[in-house]
Design brief:
heterodimer; A: 119 residues; mainly alpha; Arc Repressor Mutant, subunit A; two-stranded antiparallel sheet; 5 helices; 2 strands; B: 178 residues; elongated
Chain lengths: 119, 178
């Protein structure tokens, strides 16, 4: 098999990580043991100033869980939550590896480029 | 009451395992916002968030419906398709072979397959595919028209079931809040 075909196979077998999925995984990593849905949403909104809905965060987490990048555990709700359950998300080794690969790609592609700095 | 409607919408649209957590977040966030923004503003912020959440949640539910239990859905569709073709002579014999009866039968099939938990959409899609293949194999005329007609009959039942579920949830929640 030619080198081009091998490269194509390698690219196809690498898990795809969308822009928002990348942000959500980074938020889960930052929050470590406190990766609750609302906290993840808050982390993204505070750090990126993006106008995202909680539903978008939960559906992305659901997709990431299906891909095996995060796992969730259900915890008992409190009175402030009207006794409804909370989901705590944590990153899996596969998720950590995918984020590392994505970060490496971004660093490699950004090297030598000049960006507008925030003031 | 307004908050209850938002809760009902989330419950009707989001997958059940996510809905409870989202509704819990809604309560928690609203309670925190009331302290800083006041009751009315807190409700408005949460309402806007939930309304913006509905589309991704709907997409999530739809993708799960398509992905879950595909093997079971295929088996259900195959059995239904076999029954449909095997009973054609019987309907003709009973004088129920007309187009009206055919649409009625497809609507009933849509209602039955639509009641299969987490495999309803996939079952109907598989059934349409199998009917299409079978029609092509027996050399039926106007295959595309027949497929559109069958698909419309089943899809309308799936939508009706979804609406009934939504209305039932709204009624249950409004009753429990009184």
């Amino acid at each position: 098999m030619s080198i081009v075909a091998w490269n194509a196979l390698a690219i196809m077998s690498r898990p795809y990580l969308g822009d928002f999925e990348h942000l959500v995984l980074l938020a889960v990593m930052r929050l470590a043991d406190a990766g609750y849905g609302l906290a993840i949403w808050d982390e993204i909104v505070q750090r990126t100033a993006r106008d995202v809905s909680t539903g978008a965060v939960y559906t992305t987490l659901d997709r990431l869980e299906r891909k095996g990048f995060v796992r969730s555990t259900v915890e008992q709700g409190t009175l402030a939550r009207d006794n409804r359950i909370r989901r705590r998300y944590e990153i899996t080794p596969a998720g950590r590896g995918t984020v590392s690969a994505a970060q490496r790609d971004i660093r490699a592609m950004s090297r030598g480029l000049k960006f507008q700095e925030d003031h | 009451m307004a908050m209850d409607i938002e809760t009902a919408l989330v419950r009707a649209i989001a997958p059940s395992d996510l809905a409870d957590a989202i509704v819990g977040d809604l309560h928690e966030r609203r309670a925190a916002l009331v302290q800083t923004h006041g009751e009315a503003k807190a409700w408005a912020i949460c309402r806007s968030d939930i309304l913006r959440s509905l589309l991704p949640l709907l997409a999530c539910s739809a993708s799960r419906a398509l992905a879950d239990n595909w093997a079971f859905a295929l088996a259900s569709a195959a059995v239904t398709c076999a029954l449909c073709f095997a009973t054609i002579p019987l309907w003709d014999l009973l004088g129920m072979g007309g187009i009206g009866y055919h649409i009625l039968r497809l609507a009933i099939i849509g209602l039955v397959l639509g009641s299969i938990p987490r495999a309803s959409t996939m079952s109907c899609l598989f059934l349409l595919l199998l009917i299409g293949v079978a029609d092509w194999a027996i050399g039926a005329h106007e295959t595309y028209f027949l497929l559109v007609q069958d698909g419309t009959a089943m899809a309308s039942m799936l939508i009706a079931l979804r609406l009934v579920k939504m209305i039932r949830t709204l009624l249950l929640i409004s009753r429990s809040s009184w």
